[in-house]
Structure formats: C-alpha cells, structure tokens
Amino acid sequence: EARRQQRDYFCFSAQMLDRIAHRERMQKELMDAISKNEIELAYQPIWDNRLGRVAKLEALARWTHREWGVISPVEFIPLAEQSGLIQAMGEKLLARACQDLKQLQAMGYDWLQISINRSTLEFNTLNPDGRDWLDVLHQHELAPSSFIFEITESIFMEGHEDHLQRIRALRSAGCLIAIDDFGTGFSALNYLRLYPMDLVKIDRSFVQQIPGHTQDRLLLKGLIDIVHNLGMQLVVEGIEREEQQAFICSQGCAYTQGFLFSKPLAWADLMSYLRHHHPV
Ligand code: C2E
Ligand code: CA
Ligand code: CA
Ligand code: CA
C-alpha cells in the first residue's frame, strides 16, 4: 500500500512538473511574442442603431503561435498578468490601436472610436494621473475623445483608493470610460452611483434568452432604462440573432455588438467590412 501511494505521489508530481514546465515555456513564448509584436488586434464593429452605421470598434488581442495555433485571450491575458507582462503588452497594443486609428482617419473614417480592454491589474497600476496611456495618444496626435477604455467592475473590489482619480484624469483629458461585462459582478448598481462613467456594456448573458425569457426581458428593459436615465451610453454585447436585435432596438438601445453583425475582424477583413457598409 505504501509503495502504491509512493508511486501515485510520484505520478502526481511528475504531472505537476509537466504542467509547470509547459507554463514556463508558454510564459517565455508570450514574452517573445510581445517583444516581436506578434500579438495582434482584431476589431469588432459596434453599431449605432440610430444612425445606422458603425460607431466604434472594440480592439481584441489575438495571439497566433507557429506551433500551438490561435491562443485565446482568455488564456494568455491571465498569463500576462501573472508574469508581469500585461503592462508592456497593453502599451504596445495601445500604440498599435493608435496607428490603426490614424490610418482609419486618413481613409475618411474619422467618426470611429476605438474601444480598448484594460485588465484590472493594468488599470490599478496606471499612474493616478493616467499619464502612461495619455502620453501614447498624444504621441500619435490623436484626440482622447476617440478612445474608450473598457474596465470591469472587479477594479472596485481590490480596495485601491486611486481608481476614482484615474477615472477622473482620463475623463477630464477627454477619454471615455466603459464598464464592461456589466451585471456579472456583485456591486453593479452601487458603483454606477459612485463612479463617473460614460458607457455601460451589458454582458451577453443577459441577451442569450431574449426575447423568449420573460424575466430576462424585464431585467434587460430595466437595465436599459437605468443606464439611459443616468445619462450614460449603453452597448449590448453578444447579439447573435435578429430577434435579439429587434427587441433591443424596440427598447431604444442605441449601440449593439455581436456575431449578428460581425465577428472580430483582422485588419484586411475590417477594411472590406467598412468599405462594404460605408463607402468613403
Ligand atoms: P470581452 O471584453 O467581454 O470581449 C468580448 C468577447 O466576446 C470577445 O472574445 C468576442 O470575440 C466575444 N464575442 C463578441 N460577440 C459575440 C457574440 O455575439 N457571441 C459570442 N458568443 N461571443 C461574442 P475574445 O476576443 O475571445 O476576448 C475574450 C476576453 O479577453 C475579452 O472579453 C476581454 O476581457 C479579454 N481581452 C481581449 N483583448 C484584450 C486586451 O487587449 N487586453 C485585455 N486586458 N483584455 C483583453
Ligand atoms: Ca470588452
Ligand atoms: Ca464584455
Ligand atoms: Ca470579459
């Protein structure tokens, strides 16, 4: 019995070592990919239903590894956070988004805003005056009002005192702040009262069963009202079917995003998408 236990233990730790080795390799590969600018951005259109045009583009990170193929940001963003690479990656992606926006503006798409995801760790380690991000925008001579920073409510749970200052600094420079995945945390309604924000992105779990599910329908209706009454813009995410879009529009929601319109697009595909919908 003792010997068997010993062997089990040996197998277990060998497996763990394997996993640790894999993690270490992945971390090294990620560091490499960041320094070689191999992490790219895909852009998902966000439609303005009132004006009937694309209003914003959400920038979503993509990593294609020569051996492992496409790795989801759900996997590599946490890895980047745990290994202290997130800030370097985030700054490079912000610079990349700036170059892309410059190019879009030069092509005539000068009304588009770019919406950029920032993880809690990135936000909480930003200088309280927002300098590191604002400097990148200024270097590219872009108006801060073309940028939306998407943060999640988890930034409010860590007891940091500086986030109000950061939000104020970014907003007074002209940037917009969006609260992402709204409704999936715990203190949602409370921090809408406490923190000045421009935009609320309602998580797709709220629309999955729309319009069939009565309770979800009422909840969504209520959320849309609350956000609009507080004077904020609202984006509903994860629209996949016509009837979801129809319901959202009937409730007066201006902005929608989801596979019904488009998946996140690589640059060349974004170009054809924009040319098709908005010849300029
Ligand atoms: P998110 O910010 O909530 O982004 C929306 C996710 O939903 C994206 O997944 C997008 O591809 C997906 N999506 C969009 N429309 C639909 C739809 O109609 N149906 C369904 N089922 N899904 C839809 P993605 O690109 O895999 O990104 C996952 C998460 O990774 C993001 O969630 C965001 O939290 C994080 N992320 C992505 N890029 C970055 C980045 O550059 N920096 C940071 N810090 N986080 C990022
Ligand atoms: Ca987002
Ligand atoms: Ca989201
Ligand atoms: Ca998310």
TrEMBL record:
This is Bifunctional diguanylate cyclase/phosphodiesterase. Transmembrane segments: none annotated. The lineage of its organism: Bacteria, Pseudomonadati, Pseudomonadota, Gammaproteobacteria, Aeromonadales. It comes from Pseudaeromonas sharmana. It comes from the Bacteria. Residues 23-278 form the EAL domain.
